Amino acid sequence: MPRTQAIYGCAGYRLTAEEEAFFRDVRPFGFILFARNIKDPDQVRALVEQLQATANGEQVVVLIDQEGGRVARLKPPHWRVHAPAARFAELYAVDREAGREAAYLNARLIAHQLFELGINVDCMPVLDVPIAGAHDIIGDRAYGRVPEPIIDLGRQVIEGLLDGGVLPVMKHIPGHGRALADSHVALPKVTAAHADLRASDFLTFHRLRHAPMAMTAHVVYTQIDASRPATTSAKVIAEIIRAEIGFDGLLLSDDLSMQALEGAITTRAADALSAGCDVVLHCNGNIAEMRDVSRQTTALDGEAGRRARAALAQLRIPSSFDVEHAHGRLGELMGVSA
User: Fold this and answer.
1) Is the pTM of this model over 0.90?
2) pLDDT tens digits for 56-70?
C-alpha cells in the first residue's frame, strides 16, 4: 500500500508515544526537521531512526532546510557554517568557473553532513529571482539577481546534493522573487505581466525542470490567477508549473501553517491537493493539526505516486569524498579560511 500525501514535523528532540502511534497509523510520505528537533549529532541520528522506524521498513524521506546563511537548522558548535547563496553569486560574477566549483563543493559538503545523520532531502536550491524593492525573505538566499547565474549555480547545487546521497527540492516554484511580503505572515501578490514572469521568474525553474522535487510558492500571480496563490491554484499548477515550466517531478506544497494561506488547516490541505500538489507539507509539529491534515490526504498513488517513485529512484550512495580537502578547497575559492 502506498504512503500518504503528507510530510509532517514533530514537536521535540524525540518522538512522543502519541506522535509515534500517529505516524505508524497515517503512514506519511516523510518528515521534516526544524531547530526545535536538533541538539547534537547523536540526538538527531536517534530521532531520524525513530522516524524511520514508524515506516516499518518502507522508504520514507526526511527533509531539512539547510541552505546556509540565515536558513540553517544545523549550526555550530556541532556543524560548520555554510555561506548564503549570494556569496556564490558574488564569486561567480568575478570568476564563473570558481563560482560553479564552490557551489558544487558547498552542496556536496552539506549533503555529507545530512547523509551522516540519515537525512535524505534538503530543501534547496532557492531558484527565485529577486527584484529591487522585494521583501528580503528571499534576499541573500538567491544565487543572483538575474536568471543565468541562478540557473548555472542552481545546477551545481542540485548535482552536489545528488552526488552526496541527498535529494534537492527547488523552491519556490514558480517564483517568489517579486513578492513584496513575507509569505510566512501575509499573502504576497505579484502583478507582473505573464511575459515578464516567463522571461525571468519561470525561466530558472524551466531550465532545471528535471530536478526530482520542487516546493510551491504561497504567492498570487494576478495576471494568471488573481484569486489563489500557486499552492492552491489548479490553473497555476497545471498551466504554469506542469505545462509552461515543464516540471514533472514531485510537487510539494510549502508549509500549510504559513499565514499566506487562509482558512482552516483542513481547507488548506484539501485545496493544495485538489489544485495538483502531490504532497502537502505541515511543519509546526502540532499533532491536532496533523490529525486534521491526515483526514484530507489519501494514498500517494497514480501520477503522484509515479513522481514519488521517480524522485526516490534518484537517491544514490555517495561516492568516495575527501571532506577535509573539499573544505580546504572551498575556503580557497571563497577567500576565507576553511
Assistant:
1) yes
2) 999 999 999 999 999
Positions marked active-site: 184, 254
How many angstroms from the chain centroid is the CA of residue 155?
A: 15
pLDDT average, residue stretch 311-336: 94
Reading the block at residue 17, the C-alpha cell is 508515544
- pLDDT tens track for 54-112: 999 999 999 999 999 999 999 999 999 999 999 999 999 999 999 999 999 999 999 99
Cβ distance 214 to 169 under 8 Å? yes
**Cell numbers describing residue 199:** 522571461
Between strands 279-282 and 4-8, the pairing is parallel
pLDDT digit string (tens) for 240-293?
999 999 999 999 999 999 988 999 999 999 999 999 999 999 999 999 999 999
User: Domain locations in the chain?
Assistant: 4-334
Q: Report the distance separating Cα 30 and Cα 28, nearest Å.
A: 5
Cα(156)–Cα(101) distance, integer angstroms: 8
Strands (E) in 65-166, as ranges, are 66-68, 71-72, 121-122
CA angle 214–218–222, rounded 5-degree value: 115
Closest CA to 283 of 259, 309, 250: 259
- CA dist., res. 189 & res. 203, Å (int): 19
Cis bond before residue 172 (omega within 30° of 0): yes
Question: Which CATH number does 4-334 carry?
Answer: 3.20.20.300
Q: What angle do CA 278, 281, 286 make, to 5 degrees?
A: 145
pLDDT one-digit tens code per residue, 293-314: 999 999 999 999 999 999 999 9
CA dihedral 325→40→13→109, nearest 10 degrees, is -10
